[in-house]
Amino acid sequence: MFPETPWTLIIEAASSHTAEGLSALDQLCRRYWDPLNSYARSKGYSPADADDITQSFFERLLENQTHTKAERERGRFRTFLLNAMQNYMANDRRDANRQKRGSGAEHTAIEDHADDIHTTQTPETLFEKKWAQAVVAAAITTLENEYRAKGRADRFEVMRPLLSTRSEGDSAALAAQLDVTTMNFRKLLHGFRQRFGELVREEVARLVSDPSEVDDELTHLMKALQSA
Questions:
Q1: Domain ends where: 54, 87, 118?
Q2: Which tens digit of pLDDT belongs to each residue from 18-61?
Q3: Alpha carbon distance 164, 196 (integer Å)
Q4: In angstroms, how far is the first alpha carbon of the chain from the final one?
Q5: What is the pTM of this model?
Q6: What Rg, from alpha-carbon coordinates, does the chain have?
Q7: Which helix (H) or strand (E) holds 185?
């Protein structure tokens, strides 16, 4: 047995339709808006059309309870969601082509807008990168909330830029901003980064069905972040 995560709650909601499971699905869908929206744009949808199809995809997902087809052994939530989006977009394009062939039917053709996102990455690679960025952003938001709750917003603001680097920056100057010694600042920074790492791990653990998958998923996340 392992602790329930939003992904396992979603799977359980397939049979029980629990409010908790559906709420978890809604929260995760909100987090995946940008990755899937970017995926749609990289597949040739204009920004406006990408917004529309992403919104309609999530509405259909919730209304038709597509998540009920998910099974724990089928993999991670991001994989399930991307596959569902791919199927939805394929149906959307077939419907669009049928409308275009219809007599007198008004239809705006889907044009190639892949360049709008200025990337040479494949749509799938872009989706993975956006997913990784969303996980990191969620961890940073949680970290900020923790520091603000403790009345340490100043520490968060000073140390936040150092999350993306191994450098300690101008530790003497930063220590002065926080009115601590340089040695204490370095200890604070170490704890700050350590807590951030824990939160990233927790975020990843929310999206897998088994804790044994977390390490592999973290490795995948790092590779996705480093993709060109």
A1: 118
A2: 676 667 667 767 778 899 999 999 999 999 999 999 999 888 87
A3: 11
A4: 38
A5: 0.75
A6: 21
A7: helix 182-205
User: What secondary structure does DSSP assign to 98-145, as a single string?
Assistant: HHHHSTT---PPPP--GGGG---S-HHHHHHHHHHHHHHHHHHHHHHH
- 137 and 112 both lie in a single domain: no
Is 123 part of any domain? no
Whether residues 100 and 19 share a domain: the answer is yes
**How would you write 24-61 as a 3-class SS string?**
HHHHHHHHCHHHHHHHHHHCCCCHHHHHHHHHHHHHHH
Give yes or no: residues 17 and 72 share one domain. Answer: yes
DSSP 3-state assignment of 184? helix
The tally of domains found in the chain comes to 2
Residue 141 has which token pair?
Answer: 């938001």
For residues 120 and 71, the answer to whether their CB atoms sit within 8 Å is no
- 127, part of any domain: no
